[in-house]
Amino acid sequence: MTRLQRLIRIAWVFCRYRLDTFLPLAELPAPLKVFFLLAPWHLFPKPKLDRGDRLRLALEELGPVFVKFGQILSTRRDLLPDDMAESLKNLQDRVPPFPSDVARSIIESSLGAPVAELFQDFTPDPIASASVAQVHGATLPNGKKVVVKVLRPGIERVIRQDLALMYLMAGLLEKYWSEGRRLHPVEVVEDYDSTIHDELDLQREAANASQLRRNFDNSSLIYIPFIDWDYTRKSVLVMERIHGIPIADVAALKAAGVNMKVLAEKGVEIFFTQVFRDSFFHADMHPGNIFVDVSNPADPKYIAIDFGIVGTLAPDDQSYLARNLLAFFRRDYRQVAELHVQSGWVPPDTRVNEFEAAIRTVCEPIFEKPLKDISFGHFLLRLFQTARRFNMEVQPQLVLLQKTLLNVEGLGRQLYPELDLWSTAQPYLESWMRRRIGPSGLIKSLQTHLPSWLEQSPEMPQLVHDALLQLRQSGPTEQQNQATLELLQEQQRRAERRWRRGLTAVVLIAVAVLGTQPEAQAWVADVPIWSWVLLAGAGGLVLRGSR
């Protein structure tokens, strides 16, 4: 009955705001088309509102789960037209709070003691109320001021019900909408499913905060509040209470004498540091989660809260992204096109010349403007829209990154309209690439991979032999298998010789190059002598086997 009531409620809101006008009716099969044409929502007058406002109001009326989904959807410019995405950006993460006695009950059941014993004082009225949790002020027994984040009661059940309906709608869109297969609406809902379930575990959020705090320990860029693990559980999080000016209150920041140019540039540096140095970034950097420490207005510092959503990038994605951005800075559109093919972001049969021409058509008019007038985030959106013509599929690992970049640039331009994100980012990316492919990067790569290479090398012949044996046992005829087996065995022998000689050459070149670097000399001095003996013995075996 609960699910039926919820479905009726959703249908009512769907009809009231005439969301049927968003559906691709022309592409539906005949039975569904007839159903939608005769459906009861035609009895409702069409509201005199823009389609984006109608969608936003419908999501607000459906409650916290749909509000959160709308916020995430607002970042997917590859899925929505700009007017709808802009309207969804106005969704406020403010929902009615639940009663304070319920919050006290959750805290006491989670921490196993009365609130009066856990805290010197506890503010019954919440400081903030969001989609999945609300926050109260409190003081620990040692006098430390903290905030207590409490998960909404029953939110998991509501999420399960609403997600089931979202999956149903996404499945229909993917099946019947011509753009469905490319845009993967089911994967979008899966991404939201993963994101919102991560936010339901406050211990996960606390762990994210601790990691970010370590990454920026004693940093002049950003401060991450301290987590009190003794008072943190899945449904309750206790964190140091911070004091600062909200990032959106530009008037207050200027009144405090904050250097807005420095503040905006620090925001860009924080983003690129998290993405490329740490591969661990705060992915929910909307204005409500960012404050500014103005104790030193000439050198202000950011303060971040709400760490339920974080993003990571694999090393390959980091490298491809950095190389793409640098190629854009240099207007090397051929390399941009080739990198998209190499990374698998567009199909391997894409005509590189045509793709290069399309990218140039998008980029050249933009680059004719002064750099300060170019929006980096919207430039990427234009690029993704162009790539759609070449069947570029949505890259889930880049969705959070794109969303965060749009937030960072929007904040930066709000603080300092003259912000030139391009010239701020380029030196950082070039420096990161030099460190990655230069001597220091080679040292780090050798430290990381050489032991596993040496450990795995004796196993390679056996693995190849097992694969060949399996092929011989499952092939169509013995004669064909024998010919194939002999060919593969010869290729195996050649590959092993090339691999051994290549590894030897790489090690020798690395030693020659690294021997001239001070950091390499220091590293060599720290390695025990027995490690060098083993390495020399392994090298001898490699050389002997390559003959």
Q: Give the overall average pLDDT.
A: 75
Strand content: 5-15%
The 3D shape can be described as globular
Instruction: Report how far the terminal alpha carbons are from each other.
Output: 76 Å
Main pleated sheet: 5 strands, antiparallel
Number of helices: 24
Q: Quick one: how many beta strands?
A: 11
Taking pLDDT < 50 over at least 5 consecutive residues as the criterion, the unreliable ranges are 530-535, 541-547
Radius of gyration based on Cα positions:
28 Å
Tell me what you see in this structure.
Helices cover 61% and strands 7% of the residues. Strands 1, 2, 3, 4 and 6 form a five-stranded antiparallel β-sheet that branches. A four-stranded mixed β-sheet has the order 5-10-9-7. The termini are far apart. Residues 530-535 and 541-547 have low confidence and may be disordered. It contains 24 helices and eleven strands. Helix 3 packs parallel to helix 5, helix 13 (260-278) runs antiparallel to helix 18 (396-415) and helix 22 crosses helix 24. The chain has helices at residues 2-16, 30-38, 51-62, 64-73, 82-88, 100-111, 115-118, 155-176, 180-183, 185-199, 202-215, 250-255, 260-278, 315-329, 333-342, 352-367, 376-387, 396-415, 421-437, 439-456, 460-474, 478-514, 518-526, 529-545; strands at residues 121-122, 128-129, 133-139, 145-151, 222-223, 236-240, 245-246, 281-282, 290-293, 301-304, 310-311. Strand 3 and strand 4 form a beta hairpin. It is globular. The longest helix has 37 residues, at 478-514. With 547 residues, it is of the alpha+beta class.
